[in-house]
Amino acid sequence: MSIVYWAVLAATVIFGGMADAFPKTRIGRNGRVYLRPEPVSVLLLALILISVSGFRYQVGTDFMAYYHWTVDGWSEIFKSIVSLRNGGFELLAKLCRLVFDHDQTLIFVSACITIGLYVLTIYRISPSFLLSMLFYLFLGQWQGGFNGIRQYLAAAILFAGHRLILEKKLWQYILVVVAATMFHFSAAVMIIPYFLLNRKADVTQLVLLAIGAIVIRFSYNFIFSVIGSIKDKTMDLDRVYLSASVSIFRILVAFVPVILYLVLCRKDNLDREQNFYMNTLFFHAFSMLAGMGSTYFGRIGIYTGAAATVGYVHLFRLIEDERSRNITVYAVLVGLFLYWIYSVYAGGIGNFQWIFDNL
Questions:
Q1: Which of 217, 249, 260, 298 has its CA 20 to 30 A from that of 320?
Q2: 26 DSSP 8-state letter
């Protein structure tokens, strides 16, 4: 694995740790005093992550497709926006060409938006900036954007607005979902969590999610026919992308927090925020189970897994015994660190190249 990734990990530990170690006092609009991570360290880490992602070259399976992305005319872009067919991304590509006419511009600006939204959201809401940034790295949310650029742009938008579900602001959340679908139409499925994540995180919720996952798992043909009718084209079920199974490691990793919650965490008197984030972890796990038979469906994990960066931190706080909590935190981090190394190689991005080497 390239030394660049080790440098990124070191920067995450150093600047993430500094951000948590030297928090700044903030006063909210309601007069409430609270602590936020040290902003300079947060900014420096964000710049490092953006620079590595934005200045990479031929790193990622889909890199060259985006690098040589065909920019449409204004009329075609308008039609794409109205029809919700990648209009947001087409507009972004057009603007990038107007600002600086180089193939790398779209890659860099996409990295700025995606990583910027992730880091800003974590900065604003996570109880531990360092832990959440490590999960952002280890769960594959950062380097995942090296491949599915449009999907991770959509995921970043959804993540930035996901607390609208907690606040029960339906119409505002619908606008967020619509904005995300402008970059990848599959983001439309994320309207479903609005009606699930504020329910009580208990055994009944787990059973309902399990039943839903099983029903979806054995309804692929019907769902593909519906998707085909919406897209006005036939879905070729023999395509590898539709028929290939999701890696078992991704599914097992998704269920780690569910198991930890059932075995180690207190389950009484959860506040609304704790309940909400436990449900995000549950929903992600069973979404991965539902999509296990098709990488096409498995990509929903890109959207559902984003909130796990914060959900894990809330999960740890529900482990009342301090010694058990510390052991669990370190064990999970070590396990996910190994998964991160595996995912870098599995994603075909182990060998890193800079754009500067190819100018």
A1: 249
A2: E
The rounded distance, in Å, linking the Cα atoms of 130 and 284 is 22
Contact 315, 270 (CB under 8 A): no
Prediction pTM value: 0.92
Q: What phi and psi, each to the nearest 5 degrees, are found at residue 33?
A: -95, 130
Q: Apex CA 93: angle with CA 157 and CA 232, to 5°?
A: 75
Retrieve residue 223's tokens: 């769902």
